[in-house]
Write a structure and sequence with these properties.
It contains 14 helices and 13 strands. The strands form two sheets. It has a seven-stranded parallel β-sheet with strand order 3-4-2-5-6-1-7, sandwiched between helices. It has a six-stranded parallel β-sheet with strand order 8-13-12-9-11-10, with helices on both faces. Helix 3 runs parallel beside helix 4, helix 4 crosses helix 5 and helix 7 crosses helix 9. It is globular and about 65 Å long. It folds into two domains: 211 residues, Rossmann fold, CATH 3.40.50.300; 132 residues, Rossmann fold. Strand 10, helix 13 and strand 11 form a beta-alpha-beta unit. It has 416 residues and is of the alpha/beta class.
Length: 416
């Protein structure tokens, strides 16, 4: 028997979809129980302005403990065609999260991965599932749920890199695009569906998407999904997937509320924690800019004229405030663009590309951009308005100081 045949036997899964012979490898899961939305800013939630002292910190050098993977990708039980694509990407060794989850995932175990952006977690859940699909005796499919449009597109892009020439297909469904076009795409063969909760629920209610036909559920940036108020949507979809074989859940942080929901989603999960120091942002220089409401914009302009303000993300609390601030910056001949939920997906994509390529120097954003975006050379983050809570603050400033580079964050504090 060839090595590929041996591997094929180890990756055998039951089929999903319309096959009457589908035999789930696990019993039905408990309902996630509905429940209210996540940590959104409901009318009853009171804002208590944090002390400015919390936003002052002298960055300490980020001492990253290098992970020495014991085996190369070439020693993993990977399909030869997938291995060729990994080699083309120049990947020799797995990251820590990839190394510690690969074999557990291929053994159909549920995973609870605590890992920040930049640890290689997208590859951690894509590679073993793609590999299993290539060896599987019968087709199965995976549903990937992410909080933002941008992250969905990033996951899809990484999927396409891994599966080039492998005859595996993915659909990406996000808000701001044509629902009718999404429905037409669902009529064609696919292996992965990647999407935001709202659009996935919409397609399900229209009868176009059948969550119960998916064998694998992947939840990425789970904490952010709850922060953005998607808990009801997540529960709606997971409740329709009680017969799924496997769930992979990744989150940068965990609290008691998240863990209570996770208990209803995962089945005896293997827990893997990987951090790179970014979660506390201790390596980022942080300071407060005291100003008055009337002088606030002039203070911002003066700051942006500094020599080192090369690529800056400015956060404001509302979509209206983001648009107004962007317009003010442009009127002062500053190359700025904006990203928030009211912009079309095409506009947001173009704005991000322009920012990454240096065509615009300033990106003004709501918290939709605070997570999932991986832009390595952001020099500064400016909180033009104080974030609602400290966790959001950490998420925001984590956009700078990436890949071991120095980063700076400023928070405006208006004197009364």
């Amino acid at each position: 028997m060839s090595s590929n045949e041996n591997q094929k036997r180890s990756f055998r899964r039951s089929a999903r979809g319309n096959s009457n012979n589908s035999t789930p490898s696990r019993g039905r899961r408990n309902s996630s129980g509905g429940g209210g939305r996540g940590r959104g800013r409901g009318k009853g939630r009171k804002f208590i302005q944090p002390s400015p002292d919390r936003f002052i910190h002298t960055g300490v050098p980020l001492v990253e403990v290098k992970y020495d993977a014991p085996t190369k990708f070439s020693e993993f039980p990977l399909h030869e065609d997938l291995m060729k694509n990994i080699k083309k990407l120049g990947w020799d060794y797995p990251t820590e999260i990839q190394d510690k989850t690969f074999h557990e995932i291929t053994e159909l175990k549920d995973i609870l991965g605590v890992a920040n952006t930049g640890t290689g977690k997208t590859g951690a859940f894509l590679l073993p599932i793609i590999n299993s699909m290539l060896f599987a005796e019968e087709d199965f499919s995976a549903l990937v749920m992410v909080p933002t449009r941008e992250l969905a597109e990033q996951v899809e892009a990484e999927f396409r890199m891994f599966t080039k020439g492998l005859n595996l297909f993915a659909n990406c469904f996000i808000g701001g695009t044509s629902v009718n076009q999404d429905i037409r795409r669902l009529r064609k063969p696919f292996h992965f569906v990647i999407g935001t909760p709202g659009r996935l629920v919409d397609l399900t209610k229209r009868g176009a998407l059948k969550p119960e036909h998916f064998s694998v559920l992947i939840l990425d940036e789970f904490d952010r999904m709850l922060d953005m108020g998607f808990s009801q949507d997540v529960n709606f979809l997971t409740d329709k997937m009680n017969d799924r074989d496997q769930t992979l859940l990744f989150s940068a942080t965990l609290d008691k509320k998240q863990e209570s929901l996770i208990d209803n989603i995962l089945n005896k999960p293997v827990r893997v924690e990987v951090t790179k120091g970014n979660a506390t942002a201790e390596h980022i220089d942080q300071d407060v800019v005291y100003t008055t409401r009337n002088d606030k914009f002039d203070t911002l302009l003066e700051m942006l004229q500094g020599d080192n303000f090369e690529k800056v993300i400015i956060f404001a609390e509302t979509k209206r405030r983001v648009s107004d601030l962007t317009q003010q910056l442009r009127q002062n001949r500053i190359k700025a663009d904006e990203i928030h939920g009211d912009k079309t997906q095409n506009y947001r994509k173009n704005a991000l590309n322009a920012f990454k390529r240096g065509k615009v120097d300033i990106l003004v954003a709501t918290d939709v951009a605070a997570r999932g975006l991986d832009i390595s050379d952001v020099t500064h983050v400016i909180n033009y308005e104080i974030p609602f809570d400290y966790e959001t603050y950490i998420h925001r400033i984590g956009r700078t100081g990436r890949a071991g580079k120095k980063g700076q964050a400023y928070t405006f504090f208006s004197k009364k």
